[in-house]
Structures are given as structure tokens and as C-alpha cells.
């Protein structure tokens, strides 16, 4: 009888101990959570922004300054990403914690290489056909003129055209622009008809037709120009399967 009583007492004590341990762990975890949320050294002190090319660090820091002092674990990172993406120059944003009170923001900018003249102003266009800026002077920039597209009623952040082929053409031309030989560049690209694209290198008009084999077409035109075969006139490569037609002007 005493043995059974002793076993019952031991079981009861064991259950009480387990309950106390669970309660203690619960209180400990709650304490840690409160400590993390309230301790001042978890408050954000520094935001480091990487990957900027055309955007100033100061302008983005100004946009994010209200996050300084907030707890690094309770920051709304989606809100920060969305706030930064309001800038049409920005394509991608990735945020990572650095230590206890710092964050790194890595930015991939949209590629900006074009402009469209409109009523004396210049609308700056990225490789996706989005208007990212409107300025009154572009003399300090190396940009390629886009013609044949009406942007009179287009605003910042909007696409210059509803034609889905146009951004693809701009993106392919951007790759070409990045790899053009020194001293040569596209002075103008006419995108009035994406099936009949016309571009200009110096005094040579290049009728490339659609985007198909664009790299090969431009390489051929550059070879003819660099070999001195043509310095002024036009090269017509717009008809697939037909050899280029060239007319040299004096």
C-alpha cells in the first residue's frame, strides 16, 4: 500500500516539475522576445545601399530615413521594397540584415540608354520602354534618340507604347549599345514600325526590318562601315533571305 502511495506521490511531483519547466521555458521565451523587440541595440542605425549607377544614394537614403531607429526585426521589408520601386529607375530590390542594427539593400537599376524629344523637353527611356525621367537638357549624357513614337500624353513610369515588341527591340538594341566599337554609336533608332526598324550609325541609314537576327544585321553593317565600303547612304537588310541592298551617297 505504501509503495503505491509513494509511486503516486512521485508521479505527481514529476508532473508538477514538468509543468514548472514548461512554464519556465514559456516565460524565458517571452522574455527573449520582449528583449529583442525592446532592446535599443536592435534598433536600425545604418542602411547601406549597393548597386547604384544613375540614382544618387542620398535621394534613396532620404526616402528611407524614417526607418532609422525602428526595430530591425519588425521592419516591413515589403513596404521598403515597394517604396523604392516607386522610382522607375529601380528594377529589383533585395534586402538582407547585417549584424544587429544594420541592413544591406542591393539594387538592380533599369538600363537607361534612350531619349525621346517632346515639346522641347527630353523624356528618358529605359531598356523596357518605360519613361524614367523628363529633363530639359541631355548634353551631359550619352543617349540614343528614339523616333517614330508619340509620347505627348505619356507620363513618368508609363510605357512609351502598348506594342509588346517595342520593349524587346529596345532591350536587344541596349545589348548592342553596350558592345559598340569605340567611337561608334547609334545616333537614332526609328521604331514607328517594329517590323520595319530603321537605325542610324553616323551618316549611314540601316534598314534592319524586324528584330530577327538583329545582332548579325548590325555586325554586317558595322563591317561595311569599318571597311570603308560605305560612309554615307543606306544599307537595306529588311527582307529576310535576300542579300543586303546598299546605296552609297556622295
UniProtKB/TrEMBL annotation:
Superkingdom is Bacteria
Q: What is its main location?
A: membrane
Pfam family name, one:
POTRA_1
Report the subcellular localization.
Membrane
Q: Which UniProt keywords apply?
A: Cell cycle, Cell division, Cell membrane, Membrane, Transmembrane, Transmembrane helix
Record has Cell cycle as a keyword: yes
Q: Name one GO cellular component term.
A: plasma membrane
Q: Which GO annotations describe the biological process of this protein?
A: cell division
Q: Where is the POTRA domain?
A: 42-110
Membrane-spanning residues where?
A: 21-39
The molecule here is called FtsQ-type POTRA domain-containing protein
